[in-house]
Design brief:
Layout lengths: L1 H5 L4 E4 L4 H4 L6 E4 L3 E2 L16 E4 L4 E4 L1 E2 L2 H13 L1 H18 L2 H17 L4
Parallel strand pairs: 1-2
Antiparallel strand pairs: 3-6, 4-5
Protein name: Glycosyl transferase family 1 domain-containing protein
Length: about 120
């Protein structure tokens, strides 16, 4: 997902775990709530039901039962982007800008170094 955003490709994702920190509906993609029971995929084989039983829902700020996205909702989003090239380009451009602005590797490295230094040497005041 991060790679798609960095290359200017808008994404559709589920509002779980850290995905909601990366996708903003109408800015760089579409965030959907996984409302379908993941066991609905069992018809395609038990392997399709593997995965976490619970996930973090930032919308509820709680741990919830894992679900899957409704295919019709995903399809509707993709059809809208396919039929509206200007919207797709705008979302893609904003996706790239957001990744460059908010997900800088050097910034993450500095924060990780600060965190590790705090563990090794104690917090700095």
């Amino acid at each position: 997902m991060q790679e798609a955003l960095a290359h200017g490709v808008p994404v559709v994702g589920g509002a779980v775990d850290g995905i909601a920190e990366q996708i903003v509906t109408g800015e760089n993609g579409t965030l959907l709530t996984p409302s379908r029971n993941r066991h609905a995929l069992a018809q395609y084989g038990e392997i399709c039901t593997q995965g976490p039983r619970e996930v973090y829902s930032p919308l509820e700020d709680n741990i919830v039962e894992a679900g899957i996205l409704e295919p019709a909702e995903v399809a509707a989003c993709l059809v809208q982007w396919a039929e509206t090239p200007a919207l797709r380009r705008q979302l893609g451009q904003q996706a790239r800008v957001r990744v460059q602005r908010d997900f800088d590797l050097d910034w993450y490295g500095e924060r990780l170094d600060d965190f590790m230094q705090g563990i090794v040497h104690g917090p700095t005041s």
